[in-house]
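Students often ask why inverse folding is considered easier than folding. One informal answer: many sequences map to the same fold, so there is more than one right answer. In these notes we will look at a single instance of the problem. The structure comes first.
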C-alpha cells in the first residue's frame, strides 16, 4: 500500500509544483529550469559515477569490502533516473543524492535497516560441509596449478554419425 501511495503522490506533487512555479514565472522559464537541472544533473551524475566506479575498483584491488562504494554507485544511478524524470521534486531529490555527504547519510541510515546474510558454495558435487551445514570453502589452486590449453577433435570422420559430420548422441539427452 505504501508503494502505491508513493507512485500516486509523486506525479501529483510534480503537477502541483509545475502549476505553482509556472504561475509565478511563466511557461518558458519553468521549462528552462527543468531542462537546465536535467543537464546539470546529468553532468554531475557522470562525474560522481566515474568517482564511484574508481572507488569500487580500488576496493576490489585492495580486497576491501566494496559495499559502501557499490551503494554510492546505486544511489548515483537512482539519482540519474530521478533527474531524467521531468519535474522539480524529482530533480531536487536527484540532485541531493549527487551530494556525497547526503549519500553518506543515506548509506548510514540504510545500513542500520538492512541485514546482509552471506553464503558460500563450491563447484564440486561432493563438497565437504562446513560447521554450519553449508558447503565449506575449498582452497583455490595456486596459479602454478592452472594449465591453459587448446584442443582439437581427432575423431576420424568415418566414425562420426551422419553425413553432416555430427557425433552420435551422448546418451545424456532424450530424442
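Output (designed amino acids):
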Amino acid at each position: 500500500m505504501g508503494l502505491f501511495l508513493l507512485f500516486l503522490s509523486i506525479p501529483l506533487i510534480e503537477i502541483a509544483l509545475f502549476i505553482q512555479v509556472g504561475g509565478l514565472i511563466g511557461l518558458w522559464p519553468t521549462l528552462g529550469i527543468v531542462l537546465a537541472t536535467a543537464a546539470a544533473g546529468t553532468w554531475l551524475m557522470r562525474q560522481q559515477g566515474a568517482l564511484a566506479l574508481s572507488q569500487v575498483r580500488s576496493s576490489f584491488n585492495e580486497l576491501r569490502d566494496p559495499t559502501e562504494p557499490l551503494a554510492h554507485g546505486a544511489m548515483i544511478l537512482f539519482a540519474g533516473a530521478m533527474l531524467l524524470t521531468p519535474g522539480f521534486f524529482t530533480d531536487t531529490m536527484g540532485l541531493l543524492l549527487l551530494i556525497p555527504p547526503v549519500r553518506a547519510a543515506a548509506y548510514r541510515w540504510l545500513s542500520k535497516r538492512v541485514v546482509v546474510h552471506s553464503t558460500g558454495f563450491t563447484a564440486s558435487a561432493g563438497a565437504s560441509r562446513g560447521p554450519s551445514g553449508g558447503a565449506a570453502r575449498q582452497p583455490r589452486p595456486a596459479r602454478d596449478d592452472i594449465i591453459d590449453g587448446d584442443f582439437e577433435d581427432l575423431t576420424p570422420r568415418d566414425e562420426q554419425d551422419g553425413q553432416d559430420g555430427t557425433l552420435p548422441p551422448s546418451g545424456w539427452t532424450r530424442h
